[in-house]
């Protein structure tokens, strides 16, 4: 096992496990900041990986996949459960969108995400999946882990004997929507790889947590504030959504009057998927569905929002579940910046994200009053910068046109036609989009990277508009309605031009165009004006740029001869607030413009701001990961032969290690590797198969203990040729050397047997004195009681257990003595 | 048949002996008696079905209870019992492996209907595949039955369609949509009697898709008139993952079971019969109910049409009108002329002859058991299969067609394979070596290991039991020692000064503590016997009637033994043939002019003739064993 990342820290997880010649990558995480150091670690091994096993759909467990598939050529199959696949996709889409809303995000594209998820092989819980090729003889099985929907503990077993169990972040408790992990079913694996993250931590009671959440929400609602609950995209959010939905349904909670929203880029899809994954959820939910057809995710009160303007429509005061949980990007960050300074509001954090993120900082320093936040926005280039850029593009374009005119025509044709189709069909677009993209790439081959990106982006973003406008009719009239004039206009305008925003990699979105909510709109656009003065001021100050910014925009369109005057006037007439209308008007034009090189290029503005945190910041743990007590209990039950501890701070690992050594849980060794370190947990393994002749079997009498039959066997080994037809699938592998012979065990001849020394006597089983007492009393009618830990029977016989676990039977010569002895013997299988 | 008479021949089995009940899908002929069986028999096993099957099962049977018009006494079960049965039923996901009492089973997609499963059951290495009803043809929402990647030893499969071959899917769908198209465009009403669940959903998907691509038809409404179908629609909308890839991809965009052109009808009263339309109504064979009512309303109009889409049983109206009679009899007894068009398109999702043959070819099971079908068809299929595979050397096929209650007994030669693990396996197996260890059998799996490894490989533990037995003793210790030595031979001194003791048979420690003798030993059958012997000696000594109550222990002297051997041999072979060497160490026996030399120290015999050697050896051995005190190899616990 080699650690790629996730040792002695709390960030992403990824481990390389080699069993014989087969190399597994266990999880494939990335941190919130997309550190390239981690990628470097991956790159070293990428060629040798034979399979990837994914446990949970969040960024810590699969975040690096798109990058590795997109840029490093990872091609091996990725095994995960169905929900992990679906929700993982949601996680990555949402992450990507959240990032690219606020900055240029170029590490991976949605294409890469798709490519990565195409590698997925979906499995079910408890499905044994035999591997092929190098991994012949290995079987992988996902087991339920709780924590997130579809979450898995992976069991890798070799020829049914050796078991390696990879269990991280599992949850031992039952939840509203998920069953608890059934790690207890595993017994004595050869190697257990588990995390020590929570060994210094106690999960707390669900009731108290729920109550805490409820009171905070109620208090905030009553004082007319908003609640921001930071959650992930498609994992823990389900639990919270379900919890809140239940609270809302409960008439006594008094929340009925307030609104509740789920805000992330793909909320609709997430809930839709959740609805179709009922069979992966808790027994209670499954039963409920079977008996009354009540799908728990038929959410009545949770309004699904895809962007801040959707959210705008939700009546305040409101509770918003927004992503990302780390507050590093996404709507949660936007809302946080907006709401943090108002002391009416509350912000509830639900997970401890890795150190260094904004959310973590808030958790670790609960009393902090100001915090420095980097505000990232995309703004169009203007003035000199813009002209320079345009000039470059023009030159390039000409060059390109000269070089590949014919080609270009072709590509334009195709892309235009796809554009048309998009409006009608709206589904099954992926292929065409890819074509579209390919064309772009061909064209831009010789461009330098920077240009390439901008080009791509602008083109595709125009495509985006065509669809959005087709579907997002709601926006057209609703937005102005909700706009309190006056204050509103200035607040929006700085964002508005950006918004027009070309900001995303749109071809992905087309997949979701059919939903009712339409396009993703810049969050800040439609901010409600319940905002606090400080922010308003802030915005106002940014506003000065407004007119200036719009001016060049118009100019830009003017430059662009393809854009007609009509549009220009439209643009000017419409306040930017009714932007969607604008787009609707534009779209036929934009289609034409699609492959024209110009639209507005962007740059990312970063600005540091001191943010006063007046709102109540509260951390309520909804992580659902096992805590110390349960980890220890589980380890005690599982008793792995070897143990590898990963993921957790130094303290945590050390503590757990100490615990294990003290309790002698682990027979073999305990490892706690550092990043990059390779540990060798190979065990000396002796195994071969032998066939038992019928004649031998019939001569054995089995003794039964519990669920197992045991017998003593003496036999002579012979070997013979394998049977003429070896049925495939039947275990025919022989581990020791010869592959063509099979060993048989024959009964030992009488004469030989007489000469053999008698075999030592073996008592199997370990009866409990308590059980024994019950048996003595119930079945044999003897008086039996405990006196100081010693079981005495009829006052003449005593049974006790000494320190070494040996049973001692004491008594004076009497019938009872022999009777008790016989009963005691009955508890054993004596061989 | 209804009520009790419709039950399977359950009298022939004892429900109590069953471990496991697996339900392949929700059709009545597969789960209709389940609530009765779970509640009213002494069945104690566990019952499994897939999630989708369980969800639909409840609504389907509830509907059955509602519409069945038998009296309360005749009813096999009530709705309450149906609900009670729900808690007995456990769910299994496709491919999920479950083990019950060592029986391992998992299921594959079977096509046929939503949630239909084929069960692979593994008992002691023998795999049995029960297909239930299955279809190898992918359709609009269900995937084709999977072909397991394991070869089952026994295949139990359906023979519903016998040697019949289905029409290709495109062809029948085209025929269906064209027919519907024709009927509505000629101004007629199109009635499609269907069973509420299963094929109905497939037809709805076809129609919805057809309507979507033919805008000119948008004026004609499509209805499905079944409250049951409506209830179960949410099940279809939920268990997307049990369907084929097409549906799953589509559901990422919008749920295909949220139909755009199809509305549901609650009762016939809600239905405005104003013009051309398409109605899917249950029941499928028009025995009664809505489909019958609509049929009676519409059959007199030449423009209208009926499309029978499924299997019809002999004696039902659906079967009758297929022969296109002039008139039909209504439920009220009236006679109506039959003028509307009647067509039959089989959308049945049962396997046909070709599919079954291909399926068997891929699985190559040695045994095939045909069930579920009329006996003539079944036999035809049997002959067909035997003919198909008779030339195939790879696949020796035995086909069975048991009648009801007739059992098929197959014997599998159990060549049990045990895995040798741990210390025992440290050495590679060598021909002729003796392997001894503990054989552990758990859930039909065998492992062999050294006793020391028991803890490492199983949950079992070895333990030892030490016994301390106290016996009151007042006689002289010395006489006890004497007596013991007569029985046990050598005695060892154990213990320290404070607590001196002796050890006999190398296993039992004897201590004397004020008037009490304490025996201490580790339990094992052999040691227990020794202990009993010691106890007897002690008791005898205590009571003073021990025969060897003398002060001299038996002195075994070599001379005596030698003499005995000599005498015996002399008796056997004649005195002249036996001579003793001078140093009294050797004894020479001459038999048939062959000399055998017996070493009187070690009792070894040397002779050129093996036969004589072994004969004398045995004699000497027995003699010495008789006379000399026991030399025991103590049993080690």
TrEMBL record, chain A:
Keyword Transferase: no
Keyword RNA-binding tagged: yes
GO cellular component, one term: mRNA cleavage and polyadenylation specificity factor complex
Region named Disordered: 389-471
Origin: domain of life: Eukaryota
GO BP annotations listed: mRNA 3'-end processing by stem-loop binding and cleavage
Family: Belongs to the metallo-beta-lactamase superfamily. RNA-metabolizing metallo-beta-lactamase-like family. CPSF2/YSH1 subfamily.
Family matches, as PANTHER family: CLEAVAGE AND POLYADENYLATION SPECIFICITY FACTOR SUBUNIT 2
Name assigned to this protein: Cleavage and polyadenylation specificity factor subunit 2
Species for this entry: Adineta ricciae
Automatic annotation (TrEMBL), chain B:
Main location: nucleus
Domain of life (superkingdom): Eukaryota
Keyword DNA-binding appears in the UniProt entry: no
InterPro entries found in the cross-reference section: Beta_Casp, CPSF73-100_C, MBL, Metallo-B-lactamas, RibonucZ/Hydroxyglut_hydro, RMMBL
Domain (Pre-mRNA 3'-end-processing endonuclease polyadenylation factor C-term): residue spans on this chain: 431-630
Sequence ranges assigned to domain Beta-Casp in this UniProt record: 200-321
One Gene Ontology term from the biological process aspect of the record: mRNA 3'-end processing by stem-loop binding and cleavage
Localization (cell): Nucleus
One term under GO cellular component: mRNA cleavage and polyadenylation specificity factor complex
Record keywords: Hydrolase, mRNA processing, Nuclease, Nucleus
Domain Metallo-beta-lactamase: 4-188
A GO molecular function held by the record: RNA endonuclease activity
Residue intervals passing through the bilayer: none
A matching Pfam family: RMMBL
Name of the protein described by the UniProt record: Cleavage and polyadenylation specific factor 3
Organism for this UniProt entry: Adineta ricciae (Rotifer)
């Amino acid at each position: 096992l080699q650690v790629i990342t996730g040792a002695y820290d709390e960030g992403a997880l990824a481990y390389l496990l080699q069993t014989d010649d087969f190399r597994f990558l266990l999880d494939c995480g990335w941190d919130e900041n997309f550190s390239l150091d981690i990628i470097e670690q991956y790159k070293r091994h990428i060629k040798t990986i034979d399979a990837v096993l994914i446990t949970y759909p969040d960024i810590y467990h699969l975040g690096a996949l798109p990058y590795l598939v997109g840029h490093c050529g990872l091609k091996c199959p990725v095994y995960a459960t169905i929900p992990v696949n679906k929700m993982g996709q949601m996680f990555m889409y949402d992450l990507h969108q959240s990032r690219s809303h606020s900055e240029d995000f170029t590490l991976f594209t949605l294409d890469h995400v798709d490519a990565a998820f195409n590698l997925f092989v979906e499995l079910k819980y408890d499905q044994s999946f035999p591997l092929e090729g190098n991994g012949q003889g290995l079987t992988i099985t996902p087991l339920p882990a709780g924590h997130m929907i579809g979450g898995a503990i992976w069991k890798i077993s070799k020829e049914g004997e050796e078991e390696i169990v990879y269990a991280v972040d599992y949850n031992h408790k039952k939840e509203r929507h998920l069953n608890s992990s059934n790690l207890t079913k595993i017994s004595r694996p050869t190697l257990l790889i588990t995390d020590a993250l929570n060994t210094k931590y106690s999960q707390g009671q669900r009731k108290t947590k729920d109550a805490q959440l409820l009171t905070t929400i109620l208090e905030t609602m009553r004082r007319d504030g908003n609640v921001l609950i930071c959650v992930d995209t498609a994992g823990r959010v389900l639990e919270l959504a379900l919890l809140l939905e239940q609270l809302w349904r409960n008439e006594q909670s008094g929340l009925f009057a307030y609104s509740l929203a789920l805000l992330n880029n793909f909320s609709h899809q997430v809930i839709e998927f959740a609805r179709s994954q009922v069979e992966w959820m808790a027994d209670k939910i499954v039963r409920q569905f079977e008996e009354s057809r009540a799908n728990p995710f038929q959410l009545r009160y949770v309004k699904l929002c895809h962007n801040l303007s959707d959210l705008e429509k939700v009546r305040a005061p409101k509770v918003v579940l927004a992503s990302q949980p780390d507050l590093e990007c996404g709507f949660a960050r936007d809302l946080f910046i907006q709401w943090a300074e108002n002391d009416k509001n509350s912000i509830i954090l639900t997970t401890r994200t890795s150190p260094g993120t904004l959310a973590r900082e808030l958790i670790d320093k609960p009393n902090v009053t100001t915090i420095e936040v980097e505000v990232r926005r995309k703004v169009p280039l203007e003035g000199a910068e813009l002209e320079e850029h345009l000039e470059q593009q023009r030159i390039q374009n000409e060059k390109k046109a000269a070089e590949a005119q014919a080609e270009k025509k072709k590509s334009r044709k195709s892309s235009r036609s796809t554009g048309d189709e998009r409006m009608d069909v709206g589904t099954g677009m992926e292929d065409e989009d890819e074509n579209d993209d390919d064309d772009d790439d061909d064209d831009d081959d010789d461009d330098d990277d920077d240009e390439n990106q901008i080009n791509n982006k602008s083109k595709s973003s125009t495509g985006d508009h065509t669809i959005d406008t087709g579907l997002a009719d709601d926006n057209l009239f609703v937005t102005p309605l909700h706009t309190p004039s006056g204050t509103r206009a200035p607040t929006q305008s700085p964002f508005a031009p950006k918004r027009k925003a070309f900001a995303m990699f749109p071809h992905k979105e087309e997949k979701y165009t059919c939903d009712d909510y339409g396009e993703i709109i810049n969050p800040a656009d439609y901010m409600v004006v319940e905002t606090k003065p400080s922010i308003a001021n802030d915005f106002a100050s940014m506003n000065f740029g407004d007119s200036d910014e719009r001016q060049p925009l118009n100019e830009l369109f003017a430059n662009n001869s393809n854009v007609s005057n009509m549009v220009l006037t439209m643009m000017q007439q419409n306040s930017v607030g009714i932007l969607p209308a604008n787009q609707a008007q534009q779209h036929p034009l934009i289609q034409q413009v699609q492959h024209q090189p110009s639209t507005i290029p962007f740059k990312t503005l970063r600005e540091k701001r001191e943010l006063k945190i007046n709102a109540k910041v509260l951390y309520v743990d909804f992580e659902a990961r096992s805590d110390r007590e349960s980890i220890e209990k589980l380890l005690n039950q599982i008793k792995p032969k070897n143990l590898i501890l990963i993921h957790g701070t130094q303290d945590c690992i050390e503590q757990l290690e100490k615990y294990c050594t003290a309790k002698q849980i682990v027979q073999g060794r305990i490892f706690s590797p550092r990043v990059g370190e390779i540990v060798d947990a190979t065990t000396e393994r002796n195994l071969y198969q032998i066939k038992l002749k019928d004649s031998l079997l019939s001569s054995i009498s089995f003794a039964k203990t519990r669920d197992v039959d045991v017998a003593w066997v003496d036999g002579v080994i012979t070997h013979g040729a394998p049977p003429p037809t070896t049925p495939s699938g039947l275990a025919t592998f022989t581990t020791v050397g010869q592959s063509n012979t099979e060993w048989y065990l024959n009964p030992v001849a009488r004469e030989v047997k007489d000469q053999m020394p008698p075999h030592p006597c073996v008592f199997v089983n370990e009866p409990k004195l308590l059980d024994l007492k019950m048996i003595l009393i119930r079945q044999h009618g003897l008086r039996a009681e405990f006196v100081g830990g010693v079981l005495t029977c009829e006052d003449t016989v005593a049974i006790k257990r000494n320190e070494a676990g040996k049973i001692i039977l004491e008594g004076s010569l009497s019938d009872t003595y022999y009777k008790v002895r016989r009963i005691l013997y009955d508890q054993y299988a004596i061989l | 048949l209804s009520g009790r008479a419709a039950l399977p021949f359950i009298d022939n089995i004892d429900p109590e002996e069953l471990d496991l009940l697996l339900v392949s899908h929700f059709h009545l002929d597969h789960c209709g008696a389940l609530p009765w069986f779970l509640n009213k028999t002494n069945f104690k096993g566990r019952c499994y079905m897939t999630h989708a099957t369980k969800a639909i099962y409840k609504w389907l049977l509830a509907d059955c209870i509602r519409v069945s018009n038998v009296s309360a006494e005749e009813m096999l079960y009530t709705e309450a019992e149906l609900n009670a049965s729900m808690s007995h039923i456990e769910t299994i996901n496709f491919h999920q492996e479950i083990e019950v009492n060592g029986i391992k089973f998992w299921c594959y997609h079977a096509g046929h209907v939503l949630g239909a499963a084929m069960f692979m059951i593994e008992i002691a290495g023998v795999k049995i595949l029960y297909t239930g009803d299955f279809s190898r043809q992918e359709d609009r929402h269900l995937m084709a039955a999977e072909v397991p990647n394991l070869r089952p030893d026994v295949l139990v499969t359906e023979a519903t369609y016998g040697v019949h071959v289905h029409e290709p899917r495109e062809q029948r769908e085209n025929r269906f949509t064209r027919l519907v198209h024709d009927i509505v465009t000629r101004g007629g009403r199109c009635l499609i009697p269907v069973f509420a669940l299963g094929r109905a959903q497939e037809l709805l998907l076809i129609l919805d898709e057809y309507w979507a691509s033919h805008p000119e038809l948008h004026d004609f409404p499509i209805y499905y008139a079944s409250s049951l179908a409506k209830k179960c629609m949410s099940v279809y909308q939920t268990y997307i993952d049990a369907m084929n890839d097409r549906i799953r991809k589509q559901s990422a965009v919008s749920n295909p079971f949220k139909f755009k052109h199809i509305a549901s009808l609650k009762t016939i009263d809600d239905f405005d019969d104003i013009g051309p339309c398409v109605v899917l109504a249950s029941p499928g064979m028009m025995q009664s109910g809505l489909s019958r009512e609509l049929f009676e309303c519409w059959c007199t109009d030449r423009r209208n049409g009926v499309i029978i889409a499924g299997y019809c049983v002999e004696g039902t109206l659906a079967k009758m009108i297929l022969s296109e009679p002039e008139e039909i009899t209504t439920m009220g007894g009236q006679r109506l002329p039959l003028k509307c068009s009647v067509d039959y398109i089989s959308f049945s999702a049962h396997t046909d002859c070709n599919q079954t043959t291909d399926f068997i070819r891929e699985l190559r099971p040695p045994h095939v058991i045909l069930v579920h079908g009329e006996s003539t068809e079944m036999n035809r299929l049997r002959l067909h299969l035997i003919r198909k595979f008779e030339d195939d050397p790879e696949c020796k096929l035995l086909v069975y067609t048991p009648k009801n209650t007739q059992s098929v007994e197959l014997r599998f030669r159990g060549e049990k394979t045990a895995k040798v693990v741990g210390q025992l396996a440290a050495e590679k197996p060598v021909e002729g070596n003796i392997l001894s260890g503990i054989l552990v059998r758990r859930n039909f799996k065998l492992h062999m290991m050294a006793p020391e490894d028991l803890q490492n490989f199983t949950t079992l533990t070895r333990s030892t039991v030490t016994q301390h037995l106290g016996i009151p003793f007042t006689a002289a210790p010395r006489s006890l020692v004497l007596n013991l030595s007569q029985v046990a031979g050598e005695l060892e001194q154990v213990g320290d000064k404070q607590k001196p003791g002796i050890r006999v048979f190398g296993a039992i420690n004897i201590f004397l503590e004020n008037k009490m003798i304490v025996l201490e030993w580790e339990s094992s059958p052999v040691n227990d016997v020794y202990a009993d012997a010691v106890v007897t000696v002690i008791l005898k000594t205590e009571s003073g009637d021990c025969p060897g109550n003398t002060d001299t222990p038996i002195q075994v002297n070599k001379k005596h033994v030698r003499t005995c051997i000599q005498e015996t041999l002399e008796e056997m072979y004649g005195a002249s043939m036996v001579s003793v060497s001078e140093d009294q160490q050797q004894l020479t026996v001459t038999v048939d002019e062959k000399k055998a030399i017996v070493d009187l120290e070690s009792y070894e015999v040397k002779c050129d003739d093996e036969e004589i050697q072994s004969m004398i050896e045995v004699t000497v051995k027995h003699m010495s064993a008789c006379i000399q005190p026991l030399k025991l190899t103590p049993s080690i616990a």
